[in-house]
Design brief:
about 140 residues, alpha+beta, six-stranded antiparallel beta sheet, elongated
């Protein structure tokens, strides 16, 4: 998605396709969620694991981008690892991400994914690469 000046806002069409909502982003912490729909369930009726991965990467990449954009940098997923603890089949998948490392070229986030009852359903660790915006000198 582009802002009025033509530069990327860090929000992408894939996040919009999944219905990801960005709820809160402050330095070092970001919150987001996605509503569970039939399109996001795997054949056995629970949320597909890829949805958790997409939600965590989208929330963390957007929060990193918000922090580094003023320096002419962009953010993109570098590594994404999730452990699934309990399934979600209705409501929302809620993500709370906390930055563990905010380096010059890499940010690392820990993410707790919960259902609407606040039960821990998955844990994820995401590394986000920070690079110069294409066309700008490093």
């Amino acid at each position: 998605m582009a802002a009025a000046d033509g530069k990327s806002t860090g929000i992408d069409g894939f996040s919009e396709l999944l219905g990801i909502e960005y709820l809160k982003s402050v330095p070092g912490e970001a919150h987001g969620r996605v509503a569970v729909t039939d399109a996001l369930r795997q054949p056995f009726g629970i949320v597909h694991g890829g949805v958790y991965a997409a939600l965590t990467e989208s929330v963390c990449s957007a929060a990193t981008y918000a922090a580094v954009a003023a320096q002419g940098m962009i953010a993109m997923g570098q590594s994404n690892n999730a452990s699934f603890l309990r399934p979600i089949d209705a409501g929302h998948v809620n993500a709370v991400a906390r930055a563990r490392h905010t380096g010059r070229t890499t940010w690392v986030w820990d993410v707790e994914l919960t259902d609407d009852q606040g039960r821990l359903c998955a844990l994820a660790r995401i590394s986000v690469a920070v690079r110069p915006r294409p066309g700008q000198a490093p």
